Amino acid sequence: MPVNSNIVGIDNPDTLVAALRDAQYLADQSLATAAYLALALGKPLLLEGAPGVGKTEAAKALASVLSRRLIRLQCYEGIDAAAAMYEWNYPRQMLAIRQAGSEYINIYQDDFLIARPMLEALQSPKDSVLLLDEIDRSDHEFEAYLLEFLSDFQISIPERGSVRASVPPLVVLTSNRTRELHEALRRRCVYHWISYPDPLLEAQIVMMRASSVVANTAHAVVQAVGKLRNEPLAKPPGVAETVEWAEAATLLNAQGASWPTAFKQAIGVVLKDQDDLMYVADKMDQLIQGTVA
Fold first, then answer.
1. Span 13-82+115-193: which CATH code?
2. Of 57, 95, 130, 212, which is most buried, counting CB atoms within 10 Å of its CB?
């Protein structure tokens, strides 16, 4: 299979690691390799993992690295082709028919076609990155729509024929694995599972994303969050919550709160479920014990 020549400057996974770092995203070697292969082979990239591990941010960073526009389609139960691919502008079609009178008019031309995210990506494959976010929230019928798109990078429009990309666009799919995706969809993609980052990497992410947070605080927050993730919480904190907790605790400490107090007072930025907050209320001292001075 030929290597996609439309990725100037990204000639190996190490180059992509460095480029993503410049885009404020710290990727490990395995993620960078999967993303590089998707780029080089012109295949979709499927990223799975728990909520908050950085799947969506990875797509945003890839768009930044490639200097492309990010086209994001947030999936949901019941999403259909009209929302994801295209639809006809029926009011304009009807108006055109009335204005034409007895004259013939083709109402299935570009003037009446409304491009949705997937068709947009096909029309500008060199200038965009298509993010199909949380594909597991959609249903099996929508997955069936995707098969033609992901294998041939084309959409069949009954009134017009097929619209096909001139070059393979970069398509990133994310899944929280709330349900199992169809095997036919998986076969079309380069796959990668994103785990929570190891403590050292997560601390580096905190310091990169929150410049006001010093190293000791970053490591302390990461240690505390690691303990929270081992608890049976309804919504375990993601990496974004780790960054926010570090920022919030640093702000409260600068205003005079002690570190233990600052961590406790800022708990609402890391846990965002009432049952989880009640569960850890009596465990906070244990959770932050040894993580703060």
1. 3.40.50.300
2. 130
